[in-house]
UniProtKB/TrEMBL annotation:
A Pfam cross-reference name: RNase_T
Protein name (database record): Ribonuclease H-like protein
Annotated GO MF terms: exonuclease activity; nucleic acid binding
Record keywords: Exonuclease, Hydrolase, Nuclease
Biological process annotations from GO: ribosomal large subunit assembly; rRNA processing
CDD domains, sorted: DEDDh_RNase
Biological source species: Glonium stellatum
Domain Exonuclease residues, every copy: 1-158
């Protein structure tokens, strides 16, 4: 299962889950693509990165298209995975942290790229760069609208 999360900033400089996307790695079927309403007050929407605005979150909430906090999001994810499922992501530890998940079977494209090039190289291998240089595709080009979580999930799957 390919996975990506978008986060918002909350009190104390912490990150909290605000959007969860998960895609079946083999079929490409969207398993989850939904907003997650943080259980704590948001102090920074990080829209230029997350793509999430207060109005989009409130609209999703009013339409019932939202999960109530990281606990509900994690429960929804566990409907599609188990301990033997391989999770695929980019900088996956951040996503697992906001989901409060410990998982042993992961493939992280950020780690793979760094290891393939060599530990002595200080270059950052962001998902956007990996897609451009190795797949010849452009992602995350929505300007100030921020990332598209589902687009990033599919991109990670391709990388």
């Amino acid at each position: 299962v390919a996975l990506d999360c978008e986060m918002v900033g909350v009190k104390g400089g912490r990150s909290e889950l605000a959007l969860l996307s998960a895609v079946d790695y083999i079929t490409g079927e969207v398993l989850i693509n939904t907003f997650v309403y943080p259980n704590v007050k948001v102090v920074d929407w990080r829209t230029c990165f997350s793509g999430i605005t207060p109005s989009a979150m409130n609209l999703a909430k009013s339409e019932g298209r939202i999960l109530g906090g990281w606990e509900e999001a994690r429960s929804e994810l566990w409907k599609h995975i188990d301990a033997s499922t391989i999770l695929v992501g980019h900088a996956l530890q951040h996503d697992l942290d906001v989901l409060r998940v410990v998982h042993n079977r992961v493939v992280d494209s950020g780690i793979l790229a760094k290891n393939a090039v060599g530990a002595g190289v200080r270059r950052q291998w962001g998902l956007k760069i990996l897609c451009a240089e190795f797949l010849g595709t452009k992602i995350q080009n929505h300007g100030k609208k921020g990332h598209d979580c589902l687009e990033d999930t599919y991109a990670t799957r391709e990388v």
